[in-house]
Amino acid sequence: QQQVKQSPQSLIVQKGGIPIINCAYENTAFDYFPWYQQFPGKGPALLIAIRPDVSEKKEGRFTISFNKSAKQFSLHIMDSQPGDSATYFCAASLETSGSRLTFGEGTQLTVNP
Amino acid sequence: EAEVAQSPRYKITEKSQAVAFWCDPISGHATLYWYRQILGQGPELLVQFQDESVVDDSQLPKDRFSAERLKGVDSTLKIQPAELGDSAMYLCASSLDPNYGYTFGSGTRLTVV
To answer: At CA B46, angle to CA B61 and CA B3, rounded to 5?
Structure first.
């Protein structure tokens, strides 16, 4: 019930491409869905987040699409750059649980020049 | 930009020894989290504090792990005795409002030999 499944495990795109990372969750009570970006040797950094009352949120080159009925959400990176090469984690939390984040397994993105 | 401070950055310890990690959250952040991240996986919550009180330690292996936040500011996570399977990145995070994401530190990389 608390799992978040993320795919793909790794992704390689060319500069300017649009990588898409997908996540699926089981617990319909989750009410907060953030994406984190992690560079080697660093802690995860919050990238963008969405709540289930909207279907899409865009911040700069990053867009979250949210499908409540399918219990899925995805991250799109427009005009990807080599500096976007990192590991991306989706997550979900439930306010009444004290906002403990349940993370996906991570996607290692490589953007080639 | 305010940061969550963690020390040490790296720790190598022998099996059965005791080890401790320290975290100083962003000033004013009442909520503090310790997460464990095994290589290639997403972080998993070990313990959550609200001020000096434990909110959630359901995933903390209490036979060997302990955590404290005595004055509601900085926190210490201890493992005694360490086991080979404890090798991981230990991440501390803090939040002003958990429902709007939180900030991770750079973590302590523990290797148990």
So the answer is: 145
Provide the 10 A C-beta neighbour count for residue B37: 22
Tokens standing for residue A42: 């660093």
Tell me the per-residue pLDDT of B67-111, one tens digit each, with 9 for 90 and over.
999 888 999 999 999 999 999 999 999 988 766 678 999 999 999
Q: What percent of chain A has pLDDT over 70?
A: 95
The three-class DSSP label of residue B102 is coil
Mean pLDDT of chain A: 93
Report the relative pairing of strands B10-13 and B108-112 from DSSP bridges: parallel
User: How far is A76 from chain B, CA to nearest CA, in Å?
Assistant: 19
Identify which of A23, A31, A26, A18 has the alpha carbon closest to the alpha carbon of residue A7.
Answer: A23
| Cβ within 8 Å, pair A105-B45 | no
**CA–CA distance, B91 with B74 (Å, rounded to integer):** 14
* B66 touches A at CB < 8 Å: no
